[in-house]
Design a protein that fits this description.
This protein has 277 residues and is α/β, with parallel strands linked by helices. It has helices at 3-12, 16-29, 47-62, 80-92, 104-108, 115-133, 145-159, 188-197, 223-237, 241-248, 273-276, and strands at residues 38-42, 68-75, 97-101, 138-140, 168-170, 178-180, 259-262, 265-268. It is globular and about 70 Å long.
Amino acid sequence: MEKYEQAERSIVKKYRREIWIPFLSAIKQYDLIQEGDKIAVCISGGKDSMLMAKCIQHLQKYSEFPFEVEYLVMDPGYNAVNRQRIEDNAQALNLPIKIFETKIFDIVAKVDQSPCYLCAKMRRGHLYKHAQDLGCNKIALGHHFDDVIETVLMSMFYGGEYKTMMPKLHSTNYPGMELIRPMYMVKEADIIAWKRYNDLNFIQCACRFTENCVLGDNGGGSKRQEMKELIKKLRRTSPGIDKNIFHSIHNVNLETIIGWRRGSEQHSFLDDYDQEE
């Protein structure tokens, strides 16, 4: 059996409960893929996006309705080692990638503050534009379950608000384009287990500001990593705490919320407090 066949088979066999079923559940629950879609599967070269690509590739084979896929890799200025690793993994996993190059790393290297924010914004814009040029109406990103709950905690601890990572979004700058996150319900630990089971080595940190971490399972030093460590610690005493955080974003009790906003409109529980009496 070829390596790509084993990797794909393990998704629906060995890791059926951990990966395949959560992947399908997210697509159905959030209505992420419809008939006639042309999806740009955005591959960064990491474990999350590579697994997402294999899941979507398998889904396309057996889907009840037709949809098209482009496997898109943006090179923002990778070093030769990372670029080659992406190409080798794509070949090993039988993913027909299309690579396009940008100068994002060169641009953000000249920025003094928040290079990560600028980099992420520019990458997203380039992906939307290139996907649209290919005739796609959606881009798929590899954010997973842990990314979602980490975002919730980061928004509360450091942003002073309750904000989530949405499973899909309409683009504000590219009309007709949509962003979807098919890995929304897949846990990072299960992605790592799949990677190790298939003896795959993906790039971890391709940014030139952190060139020292080329391969591995964990990043380090960021607020998100801080949240990862916190959740890991909480799981030891309360194994279901991550699921509770995840369920909380689907089960907000507005009767107990002090204030909220929709767009630029700010609301308070006082708006209709006396009417309820």
